[in-house]
Design a protein that fits this description.
about 250 residues; alpha/beta; 5-stranded parallel sheet; 4-stranded parallel sheet
């Protein structure tokens, strides 16, 4: 990401100023920390190549309005060459519109809501997988390893969750899977047992989940408590792709 923004400035002796909008605090901070660490590695790589990058860090706390204010500050006060961000699809959806307004390049490292890149934005660029990619890759894998016939979808009621569930339903049905359960839950709940009982009663061959890390951990713990045993649990990136999830489940 930083290589993309800095490439045009290799011949410039002054440091390239780049903004970063990330979830450094708040519920999504665990993955925000992963992104921060990745950026720091990229900065070291660029420095070794003789490219100095000055980073202006902005914490969106996982809230779209905070992200919008951060992008406006970076564009109008800090005069950055471009912005990397954000983590969540909700924040990214909000700041993508602002990036077009201020005509500032916005490179997104991870937000996967499929619809963001269907809005015709000219200054927004994505370098990661979309929810459609998650759905097709995971469901194709499940189909190649077994013969599932039915699919349950459980997603958080956020931009990311809604997009992920839609992608899973569309691709699953395209591949001949029958969706026997689909429900959006309230993000951040302390207990998902009642919802998971309904998932268990649906008796789906494959359970496709779309969650950030705190919910992903709790959902898997409580799934085990209730004896859910599908042919496969499929986690659509995000919370299921984090080291904290692996340690705590």
């Amino acid at each position: 990401m930083f290589q993309l923004l800095a490439a045009a400035f290799f011949a410039v002796s002054a440091p390239v100023k780049v903004g970063v909008i990330n979830s450094m605090t708040g519920p999504e901070a665990p993955i925000g920390e992963d992104i921060t660490n990745g950026i720091k590695v990229a900065l070291e790589d660029l420095k070794a190549k003789g490219v100095e990058v000055e980073v202006v860090w902005e914490d969106d706390t996982g809230k779209p309005q905070v992200g919008i204010s951060a992008l406006e500050k970076l564009a109008t006060r800090d005069n950055v060459a471009g912005v990397v961000g954000a983590y969540t699809s909700a924040v990214t959806s909000a700041i993508a519109k602002s990036a077009d307004r201020y005509k500032i390049p916005l490179i997104n490292p991870v937000a996967s809501k499929e619809e963001i890149t269907r809005q015709g934005y000219k200054w927004f660029f994505r370098v990661s997988a979309t929810t459609g990619d998650y759905a097709s890759i995971l469901l194709d894998m499940a189909l190649s390893l077994g013969q599932p016939k039915t699919l349950a979808i459980l997603n958080e009621n956020t931009d990311f969750g809604t997009s992920g569930a839609r992608s899973a339903k569309e691709y699953g049905e395209k591949k001949g899977l029958k969706v026997v359960f689909s429900e959006a839950y309230s993000k951040g709940s302390p207990d998902y047992r009642s919802t998971l009982v309904n998932v268990r009663n649906a008796n789906a061959d494959v359970i496709f989940m779309v969650s950030y890390v705190a919910d992903a951990i709790l959902l898997m713990r409580q799934s085990r408590e209730l004896g859910l045993s599908p042919k496969a649990f499929l986690g659509a990136g995000a919370g299921f792709a984090n080291a904290q999830f692996a340690k705590e489940t």
